[in-house]
Amino acid sequence: MDVLSDVVAVTRTGRPRSAYVRWHAPWGQEFASVPGSAGFQVILQGSCWLLTPDAEPVQLGTGDVVFLPHGSGHTLANSPETLLTAPACGRGDHELYDAYASDSVDRSGDGGPVTVVLCGAYQLDPSRTHPLLLTLPDLIHLPAQSDGHPELRSAVALLAAELETPRLGTDAAVPALLDTLLLYILRIWFKQQPARGDTTGWAAALNDPPVTAALHAIHRDPSAPWTVAKLAAEAGLSRAPFARRFAMLIGQPPLGYLTWWRMTTAARLLRASDAPLRSIAAQVGYTSEFAFANAFKRAHGTAPGAYRRKS
Predict the structure, then answer these.
(1) pLDDT-derived band of residue 95, with 50, 70 and 90 as boundaries?
(2) For residue 139, what pLDDT band results from cuts at 50, 70 and 90?
(3) Strands 140-142 and 12-24
(4) What's the CA gap between 6 and 194, in Å, rounded?
(5) Average pLDDT estimate for 61-87
(6) What are the tens digits of pLDDT across the range 26-42?
Protein backbone atom coordinates (compact mmCIF):
# COMPACT_ATOMS: atom_id res chain seq x y z
CA MET A 1 0.00 0.00 0.00
CA ASP A 2 1.06 3.61 -0.46
CA VAL A 3 1.48 6.08 2.39
CA LEU A 4 -1.83 7.92 2.03
CA SER A 5 -3.89 4.73 1.77
CA ASP A 6 -2.20 3.38 4.88
CA VAL A 7 -2.83 6.59 6.82
CA VAL A 8 -6.57 6.28 6.24
CA ALA A 9 -6.67 2.53 6.86
CA VAL A 10 -4.71 2.67 10.12
CA THR A 11 -6.02 5.88 11.65
CA ARG A 12 -9.75 5.64 11.01
CA THR A 13 -11.80 3.43 13.31
CA GLY A 14 -15.47 2.48 13.47
CA ARG A 15 -17.91 3.41 10.73
CA PRO A 16 -17.76 6.86 9.14
CA ARG A 17 -21.02 8.79 9.28
CA SER A 18 -22.68 11.13 6.84
CA ALA A 19 -25.99 12.86 6.15
CA TYR A 20 -27.65 14.69 3.28
CA VAL A 21 -29.20 17.81 4.83
CA ARG A 22 -31.55 20.37 3.28
CA TRP A 23 -31.93 23.73 5.04
CA HIS A 24 -34.40 26.53 4.30
CA ALA A 25 -33.32 30.06 5.26
CA PRO A 26 -33.03 31.41 7.83
CA TRP A 27 -30.99 28.61 9.37
CA GLY A 28 -27.84 28.01 11.36
CA GLN A 29 -26.29 24.83 12.68
CA GLU A 30 -23.43 24.59 15.14
CA PHE A 31 -21.14 21.55 15.01
CA ALA A 32 -19.45 20.89 18.34
CA SER A 33 -15.74 20.27 18.69
CA VAL A 34 -15.18 16.50 18.76
CA PRO A 35 -11.56 15.56 19.58
CA GLY A 36 -10.55 12.28 18.00
CA SER A 37 -12.58 12.86 14.87
CA ALA A 38 -12.41 14.56 11.49
CA GLY A 39 -15.35 16.18 9.72
CA PHE A 40 -16.31 17.48 6.32
CA GLN A 41 -18.95 19.69 4.72
CA VAL A 42 -19.76 19.73 1.00
CA ILE A 43 -22.12 22.39 -0.39
CA LEU A 44 -24.28 20.63 -2.98
CA GLN A 45 -26.74 23.45 -3.66
CA GLY A 46 -26.99 27.12 -2.71
CA SER A 47 -24.57 28.93 -0.44
CA CYS A 48 -23.85 29.50 3.23
CA TRP A 49 -21.25 30.86 5.65
CA LEU A 50 -18.68 28.94 7.63
CA LEU A 51 -18.07 30.45 11.07
CA THR A 52 -15.18 29.45 13.32
CA PRO A 53 -14.17 30.96 16.68
CA ASP A 54 -10.77 32.32 15.65
CA ALA A 55 -11.18 33.31 12.00
CA GLU A 56 -13.18 35.58 9.74
CA PRO A 57 -16.42 34.13 8.27
CA VAL A 58 -15.93 32.29 4.98
CA GLN A 59 -18.62 32.26 2.32
CA LEU A 60 -19.15 28.86 0.73
CA GLY A 61 -20.80 28.18 -2.61
CA THR A 62 -22.02 25.20 -4.57
CA GLY A 63 -19.23 22.67 -5.00
CA ASP A 64 -17.08 23.91 -2.13
CA VAL A 65 -15.57 21.27 0.16
CA VAL A 66 -14.48 21.93 3.75
CA PHE A 67 -12.45 19.40 5.75
CA LEU A 68 -11.70 19.71 9.48
CA PRO A 69 -9.03 17.08 10.24
CA HIS A 70 -8.95 17.71 14.00
CA GLY A 71 -12.68 17.80 14.70
CA SER A 72 -12.70 21.55 15.33
CA GLY A 73 -15.97 23.20 16.30
CA HIS A 74 -17.64 25.32 13.62
CA THR A 75 -20.98 26.66 12.44
CA LEU A 76 -22.77 26.74 9.11
CA ALA A 77 -25.45 29.39 8.60
CA ASN A 78 -27.25 31.16 5.79
CA SER A 79 -25.85 34.44 7.14
CA PRO A 80 -23.19 35.43 9.69
CA GLU A 81 -25.91 37.35 11.53
CA THR A 82 -28.29 34.40 11.94
CA LEU A 83 -29.04 33.68 15.58
CA LEU A 84 -28.45 30.05 16.57
CA THR A 85 -31.20 28.52 18.68
CA ALA A 86 -30.73 24.77 18.11
CA PRO A 87 -28.27 22.72 20.19
CA ALA A 88 -24.87 21.98 18.70
CA CYS A 89 -24.58 18.82 16.65
CA GLY A 90 -22.08 16.43 18.20
CA ARG A 91 -21.13 12.78 18.41
CA GLY A 92 -24.48 11.88 19.97
CA ASP A 93 -26.71 13.64 17.43
CA HIS A 94 -28.63 10.56 16.31
CA GLU A 95 -31.12 12.51 14.20
CA LEU A 96 -28.49 13.93 11.90
CA TYR A 97 -25.97 11.15 11.64
CA ASP A 98 -26.77 7.67 12.87
CA ALA A 99 -28.84 6.27 10.03
CA TYR A 100 -26.94 7.79 7.17
CA ALA A 101 -28.53 5.32 4.79
CA SER A 102 -32.07 6.42 5.58
CA ASP A 103 -34.09 9.45 4.48
CA SER A 104 -32.24 12.75 4.39
CA VAL A 105 -32.82 15.29 7.14
CA ASP A 106 -34.81 18.38 6.21
CA ARG A 107 -34.30 21.33 8.56
CA SER A 108 -37.04 23.78 7.55
CA GLY A 109 -36.85 27.48 8.25
CA ASP A 110 -39.33 30.01 6.91
CA GLY A 111 -39.35 28.85 3.32
CA GLY A 112 -36.35 30.94 2.26
CA PRO A 113 -33.63 29.93 -0.21
CA VAL A 114 -32.53 26.31 0.02
CA THR A 115 -29.03 25.12 0.87
CA VAL A 116 -28.20 21.43 0.55
CA VAL A 117 -25.15 20.16 2.44
CA LEU A 118 -23.43 16.80 2.53
CA CYS A 119 -21.90 16.54 6.00
CA GLY A 120 -20.05 13.76 7.70
CA ALA A 121 -17.50 12.65 10.25
CA TYR A 122 -14.75 10.08 10.65
CA GLN A 123 -13.82 8.64 14.03
CA LEU A 124 -10.05 8.48 14.52
CA ASP A 125 -7.94 6.52 16.97
CA PRO A 126 -5.70 9.01 18.84
CA SER A 127 -3.27 6.23 19.77
CA ARG A 128 -2.63 5.49 16.10
CA THR A 129 -2.75 8.97 14.60
CA HIS A 130 -0.25 9.19 11.78
CA PRO A 131 2.06 12.24 11.98
CA LEU A 132 0.87 13.19 8.51
CA LEU A 133 -2.55 14.07 9.93
CA LEU A 134 -1.08 15.95 12.87
CA THR A 135 0.56 18.43 10.49
CA LEU A 136 -2.68 19.38 8.74
CA PRO A 137 -4.24 22.79 9.47
CA ASP A 138 -7.47 23.02 11.46
CA LEU A 139 -9.41 23.86 8.30
CA ILE A 140 -8.92 22.81 4.68
CA HIS A 141 -11.11 24.67 2.17
CA LEU A 142 -11.23 23.33 -1.38
CA PRO A 143 -13.25 25.86 -3.40
CA ALA A 144 -15.14 24.74 -6.49
CA GLN A 145 -12.92 25.41 -9.50
CA SER A 146 -13.27 25.35 -13.25
CA ASP A 147 -11.45 21.99 -13.43
CA GLY A 148 -13.68 20.80 -10.59
CA HIS A 149 -11.26 18.12 -9.33
CA PRO A 150 -13.24 15.53 -11.34
CA GLU A 151 -12.42 12.55 -9.13
CA LEU A 152 -13.54 14.43 -5.99
CA ARG A 153 -16.71 15.65 -7.69
CA SER A 154 -17.51 12.11 -8.83
CA ALA A 155 -17.14 10.75 -5.29
CA VAL A 156 -19.34 13.56 -3.92
CA ALA A 157 -22.01 12.93 -6.57
CA LEU A 158 -22.08 9.19 -5.89
CA LEU A 159 -22.22 9.68 -2.12
CA ALA A 160 -24.98 12.28 -2.37
CA ALA A 161 -27.02 9.98 -4.62
CA GLU A 162 -26.75 7.10 -2.16
CA LEU A 163 -27.79 9.28 0.78
CA GLU A 164 -30.60 11.06 -1.05
CA THR A 165 -32.13 7.86 -2.43
CA PRO A 166 -31.07 4.79 -0.42
CA ARG A 167 -31.24 1.52 -2.35
CA LEU A 168 -30.09 -2.07 -2.06
CA GLY A 169 -26.40 -2.03 -1.16
CA THR A 170 -26.33 1.54 0.18
CA ASP A 171 -25.08 0.34 3.59
CA ALA A 172 -22.00 -1.10 1.88
CA ALA A 173 -21.53 1.71 -0.64
CA VAL A 174 -21.58 4.67 1.76
CA PRO A 175 -18.60 3.72 4.00
CA ALA A 176 -16.48 2.92 0.93
CA LEU A 177 -17.39 6.23 -0.70
CA LEU A 178 -16.63 8.12 2.51
CA ASP A 179 -13.14 6.62 2.64
CA THR A 180 -12.68 7.51 -1.04
CA LEU A 181 -13.80 11.07 -0.36
CA LEU A 182 -11.28 11.39 2.46
CA LEU A 183 -8.46 10.11 0.25
CA TYR A 184 -9.32 12.55 -2.54
CA ILE A 185 -9.49 15.52 -0.15
CA LEU A 186 -6.06 14.71 1.29
CA ARG A 187 -4.55 13.97 -2.12
CA ILE A 188 -5.72 17.29 -3.55
CA TRP A 189 -4.57 19.30 -0.55
CA PHE A 190 -1.08 17.81 -0.51
CA LYS A 191 -0.74 18.28 -4.26
CA GLN A 192 -1.65 21.95 -3.90
CA GLN A 193 1.07 22.73 -1.36
CA PRO A 194 3.93 24.83 -2.73
CA ALA A 195 7.08 22.94 -3.66
CA ARG A 196 9.74 25.18 -2.12
CA GLY A 197 13.24 24.12 -1.25
CA ASP A 198 12.96 25.47 2.30
CA THR A 199 9.70 23.67 3.05
CA THR A 200 9.67 20.81 5.55
CA GLY A 201 6.99 18.49 6.84
CA TRP A 202 4.72 15.90 5.29
CA ALA A 203 3.32 18.19 2.60
CA ALA A 204 6.84 18.68 1.30
CA ALA A 205 7.73 15.01 1.77
CA LEU A 206 4.81 13.79 -0.35
CA ASN A 207 5.85 16.21 -3.09
CA ASP A 208 9.47 15.00 -2.95
CA PRO A 209 9.97 11.97 -5.27
CA PRO A 210 13.02 10.45 -3.50
CA VAL A 211 11.52 10.60 -0.01
CA THR A 212 8.13 9.45 -1.30
CA ALA A 213 9.78 6.46 -2.97
CA ALA A 214 11.38 5.45 0.33
CA LEU A 215 8.11 5.91 2.22
CA HIS A 216 6.23 3.80 -0.29
CA ALA A 217 8.87 1.07 0.05
CA ILE A 218 8.45 1.02 3.84
CA HIS A 219 4.66 0.92 3.61
CA ARG A 220 4.64 -1.61 0.78
CA ASP A 221 6.77 -4.12 2.70
CA PRO A 222 7.43 -3.28 6.37
CA SER A 223 8.80 -6.78 6.93
CA ALA A 224 11.73 -6.29 4.55
CA PRO A 225 15.20 -6.01 6.15
CA TRP A 226 15.48 -2.32 5.39
CA THR A 227 18.68 -0.41 6.04
CA VAL A 228 19.41 3.23 5.34
CA ALA A 229 21.47 2.14 2.33
CA LYS A 230 18.62 0.03 0.91
CA LEU A 231 16.09 2.83 1.38
CA ALA A 232 18.52 5.27 -0.21
CA ALA A 233 18.72 2.96 -3.21
CA GLU A 234 14.89 3.04 -3.46
CA ALA A 235 15.12 6.84 -3.37
CA GLY A 236 17.86 6.93 -6.00
CA LEU A 237 20.26 8.79 -3.71
CA SER A 238 23.46 7.98 -1.90
CA ARG A 239 23.18 7.06 1.78
CA ALA A 240 24.18 10.29 3.57
CA PRO A 241 22.24 12.79 1.39
CA PHE A 242 19.17 10.57 1.58
CA ALA A 243 19.32 10.28 5.38
CA ARG A 244 19.63 14.08 5.75
CA ARG A 245 16.82 14.73 3.30
CA PHE A 246 14.46 12.20 4.92
CA ALA A 247 15.09 13.49 8.44
CA MET A 248 14.66 17.12 7.36
CA LEU A 249 11.27 16.48 5.75
CA ILE A 250 9.80 13.78 8.00
CA GLY A 251 11.24 14.99 11.29
CA GLN A 252 12.91 11.70 12.22
CA PRO A 253 15.58 9.45 10.64
CA PRO A 254 14.58 6.72 8.18
CA LEU A 255 15.00 3.81 10.58
CA GLY A 256 13.16 5.71 13.31
CA TYR A 257 10.14 6.10 11.04
CA LEU A 258 10.46 2.45 9.95
CA THR A 259 10.28 1.27 13.56
CA TRP A 260 7.33 3.56 14.31
CA TRP A 261 5.43 2.26 11.30
CA ARG A 262 6.21 -1.36 12.14
CA MET A 263 4.90 -0.93 15.69
CA THR A 264 1.80 0.91 14.41
CA THR A 265 1.15 -1.92 11.96
CA ALA A 266 1.68 -4.50 14.70
CA ALA A 267 -0.87 -2.75 16.91
CA ARG A 268 -3.41 -2.86 14.10
CA LEU A 269 -2.78 -6.58 13.52
CA LEU A 270 -3.11 -7.34 17.23
CA ARG A 271 -6.45 -5.53 17.33
CA ALA A 272 -7.85 -6.97 14.11
CA SER A 273 -6.70 -10.59 14.12
CA ASP A 274 -6.04 -13.65 16.27
CA ALA A 275 -2.76 -14.38 14.50
CA PRO A 276 -0.05 -15.74 16.82
CA LEU A 277 2.61 -13.29 17.97
CA ARG A 278 5.33 -15.00 15.94
CA SER A 279 3.27 -14.43 12.78
CA ILE A 280 2.73 -10.75 13.58
CA ALA A 281 6.41 -10.36 14.44
CA ALA A 282 7.37 -11.76 11.03
CA GLN A 283 4.89 -9.45 9.24
CA VAL A 284 6.62 -6.40 10.72
CA GLY A 285 10.19 -7.52 10.15
CA TYR A 286 11.20 -9.40 13.31
CA THR A 287 12.58 -12.93 13.14
CA SER A 288 12.58 -13.17 16.94
CA GLU A 289 9.31 -13.02 18.88
CA PHE A 290 11.32 -11.90 21.93
CA ALA A 291 12.88 -8.97 20.05
CA PHE A 292 9.47 -8.01 18.68
CA ALA A 293 7.88 -8.07 22.14
CA ASN A 294 10.62 -5.82 23.54
CA ALA A 295 10.29 -3.34 20.67
CA PHE A 296 6.50 -3.30 21.00
CA LYS A 297 6.66 -2.67 24.74
CA ARG A 298 9.06 0.24 24.22
CA ALA A 299 6.69 1.75 21.68
CA HIS A 300 3.32 1.14 23.38
CA GLY A 301 4.22 0.75 27.05
CA THR A 302 2.74 -2.73 27.30
CA ALA A 303 3.50 -6.23 26.03
CA PRO A 304 1.78 -7.39 22.80
CA GLY A 305 -0.36 -9.99 24.57
CA ALA A 306 -1.62 -7.49 27.16
CA TYR A 307 -2.26 -4.92 24.41
CA ARG A 308 -4.38 -7.45 22.52
CA ARG A 309 -6.40 -8.36 25.60
CA LYS A 310 -7.20 -4.69 26.28
CA SER A 311 -8.26 -4.00 22.67
Answers:
(1) very low
(2) very high
(3) unpaired
(4) 24
(5) 88
(6) 888 999 888 888 999 99
Minimal CA–CA distance to 91: which of 14, 146, 5? 14
Report the range out of 21-25, 50-54, 130-134, 230-234 with the highest average pLDDT: 230-234
Cα(173)–Cα(161) distance, integer angstroms: 11
Q: What is the DSSP string of 50-112?
A: EE-TTS--EEE-TT-EEEETT---EEEESSTTPPP-SPPB-TT-HHHHTTTTSPPEEE--SS-
DSSP per-residue codes, 242-286: HHHHHHHHHSS-HHHHHHHHHHHHHHHHHHH----HHHHHHHTT-
CA distances from 304 to 163, 222, 311 (A): 40, 18, 11
Phi and psi, residue 25, nearest 5°: -60, 145
| C-alpha distances out from residue 59 to 53, 66, 88, 187, Å | 15, 11, 20, 24
Q: How far apart are CA 35 and CA 37, in angstroms?
A: 6
